[in-house]
Design goal:
The protein is mostly helical. The chain contains 20 helices and six strands. It is globular. The protein starts with 15 loop residues before the first strand and ends with a strand.
Length: 447
C-alpha cells in the first residue's frame, strides 16, 4: 500500500544539508573500511588460497566494539529518507524510484567489472579454486542492498506510525530482536533468527527517522536522557556478551558457533543503540568539525562518494593482499612485524581505493570524474549553511531568500552535471513561503 506522508511539524528553517548526518555517514564509512582492512590473514600454497581473520587473535575482538559501526550507516540512511519525506511527501513507489538509482548504478558497474575481471583471471590461468573464493568474497558487501530496499519500502508507513505512536513504536521495534533471540536461543526455534536480518537493522534506521522528527520539532533529546539510554544499552550489551550465548566479537570470526551480525543478534542491537546515543551526544562537536576547514572537505568528499567507497574498498584490499603474497611479505597477524607494516598496508590500500573511486565515482552521480572533482568546494558552503541551521536565530522569509540566492551562486559556480546534485541525502529545501509559515522555535531539550 502506498502512503502519502506529510509530518505535521513546524519546519526548522534549515538551509542546506544536515551536516550531522554527513558526519555520521563519513565516520561510519571510514570505520567500516578500517575494520575490513584490519581483517585479512592470507596464505597461498600449492594453488590454494587460505583466508583467515586477523581479528580472531588474542584480544583483537575489543576493536570490533569500536569499529563495527554498521548501525550508524543505517541510522544515516533512515535520517536521509526521513529528510526527503519531510521535504516533499511522496508515495512508497516514488520514494524508492527516487533513491534507488544512486545505489543501482554503482552496484551494476561493480558487478559488471567483477564479471569481466573473474573471466580474465580464468583466461590467464588463475587456479579455479582461487577464482571461486573471489566469487564468494567479492559480492559479500551487497547483502545490504536487499535490506535497504525493504526498509525503504517501509519508510512511509514507518513515518506514519512514528507520527502516531512516537516513542512507543521505538520501544516495540527495539524489543522485537530481543524477542526473536529469546525464541531462537531460549526455546530452540533457530529458523526464526532470519527475521533479525530486517528487525536488527530496522532499529538504527528508525532511530535515524526519529532523530529527524525530533530535530524538526526542535525537541532533540537531552544529554542526560542520552547518557541514561547509553548506559542501559552498554549494560545490556555487556551482560549479553558475558551471560548469553553470544561471542564477545561483534563480527563473525572463524570457529565461533554464532555470529553477532549474520543475522544481527540482541547484542548487536544493544551495541547499535549505544552507538546512536554516543553520536547524538557528540552532535555539536561533529557539526562544528564537519562545518569548516579540512574536516568539512573530507566529510563532504566521503559523503558524495560513500557508495563507491563502500563497494570498492574490499577490491582495493584484495589488490594489496595479492601484491603482498607475490612478494612473500605477509607477516603473522598481531606480531610486531604485522603492526609495523600496517601503516604501509593502509597507505597502499588507500592509494588503490583512490584510483578506483576516481574511475567509478561517476556511476554514483552520473557525472564525469573531472566534474566531481570540481564540485569539492561545495562542502564549505554546506558547512556554512549548517552553521546557520544550528543557530538559534529565527529563520524568516528574508533569511530563507538569502539562503536560496546563496545556493543559486553555488549551483552557478560549482554545479554538478545534467542532474543537479540529486538532492543529496539530508539536504533540505527551504522555500520562502514555508519559512514564513514556520514558527520561530527556540531549541528545547527533553529527556
Amino acid at each position: 500500500m502506498s502512503v502519502l506522508v506529510r509530518p505535521a511539524v513546524a519546519r526548522e528553517g534549515a538551509v542546506g544539508r544536515d551536516v550531522f548526518i554527513d558526519a555520521v555517514r563519513a565516520v561510519g564509512t571510514a570505520s567500516v573500511i578500517l575494520v575490513h582492512w584490519l581483517m585479512p590473514e592470507v596464505a597461498y600454497s600449492d594453488g590454494r588460497l587460505a583466508i583467515g581473520n586477523a581479528l580472531g587473535h588474542g584480544g583483537a575482538w575489543v576493536l570490533t566494539w569500536v569499529l563495527e559501526v554498521l548501525p550508524l550507516l543505517f541510522f544515516a540512511a533512515g535520517a536521509s529518507a526521513a529528510h526527503q519525506l519531510a521535504r516533499r511527501p511522496v508515495s512508497t513507489v516514488q520514494l524508492v524510484t527516487q533513491r534507488l538509482p544512486r545505489l543501482l548504478r554503482p552496484v551494476a558497474a561493480f558487478a559488471a567489472t567483477w564479471v569481466v575481471l573473474l573471466g580474465a583471471l580464468l583466461a590467464l590461468g588463475a587456479p579455479a579454486a582461487v577464482v571461486g573464493q573471489l566469487v564468494r568474497l567479492a559480492p559479500q558487501l551487497l547483502w545490504f542492498l536487499g535490506v535497504y530496499v525493504l526498509l525503504l519500502l517501509l519508510t512511509p508507513n514507518l513515518a506514519h506510525a512514528h507520527a502516531r505512536w512516537g516513542w512507543r513504536l521505538l520501544v516495540c521495534v527495539i524489543a522485537a530482536p530481543f524477542a526473536v533471540d529469546l525464541l531462537r536461543f531460549g526455546i530452540g526455534v533457530h529458523g526464526i533468527g532470519i527475521a533479525n536480518v530486517v528487525l536488527g537493522w530496522l532499529v538504527p534506521y528508525l532511530l535515524g527517522m526519529a532523530y529527524v522528527d525530533a530535530r524538526r520539532r526542535s525537541r532533540l533529546p537531552s544529554a542526560r536522557g542520552l547518557v541514561i539510554v547509553a548506559a542501559g544499552a552498554l549494560c545490556a550489551a555487556v551482560l549479553l556478551a558475558t551471560l548469553g550465548p553470544y561471542p564477545a566479537s561483534l563480527i563473525g570470526l572463524p570457529g565461533e558457533p554464532v555470529s553477532n551480525l549474520a543475522p544481527p543478534t540482541a547484542l548487536a542491537v544493544a551495541h547499535g543503540v549505544l552507538l546512536t546515543c554516543l553520536v547524538l551526544l557528540a552532535r555539536r562537536v561533529l557539526v562544528d568539525r564537519a562545518s569548516a576547514g579540512r574536516c568539512a572537505v573530507a566529510v563532504g568528499w566521503v559523503s558524495r562518494h560513500s557508495m563507491t567507497l563502500y563497494l570498492w574498498h574490499l577490491t582495493a584490499m584484495f589488490v594489496v593482499a595479492a601484491s603482498a603474497l607475490a612478494f612473500d611479505a605477509v607477516p603473522d597477524p598481531w606480531s610486531v612485524t604485522w603492526w609495523l607494516s600496517r601503516p604501509l598496508w593502509f597507505v597502499a590500500a588507500a592509494a588503490v581505493l583512490g584510483v578506483l573511486v576516481h574511475l567509478f565515482a561517476r556511476h554514483e552521480h552520473g557525472c564525469r570524474p573531472s566534474v566531481l572533482l570540481r564540485s569539492a568546494p561545495r562542502t564549505r558552503y554546506a558547512g556554512h549553511s549548517a552553521r546557520l541551521e544550528e543557530s538559534t536565530l529565527p529563520i524568516d522569509g528574508w533569511s530563507a531568500q538569502v539562503g536560496t540566492q546563496h545556493r543559486q551562486r553555488i549551483k552557478d559556480n560549482y554545479g554538478l552535471c545534467h542532474q543537479e546534485a540529486p538532492q543529496a541525502d539530508g539536504e533540505e529545501e527551504a522555500p520562502q513561503a514555508a519559512a514564513q509559515d514556520a514558527s520561530p522555535a527556540s531549541q528545547q531539550e527533553v529527556t
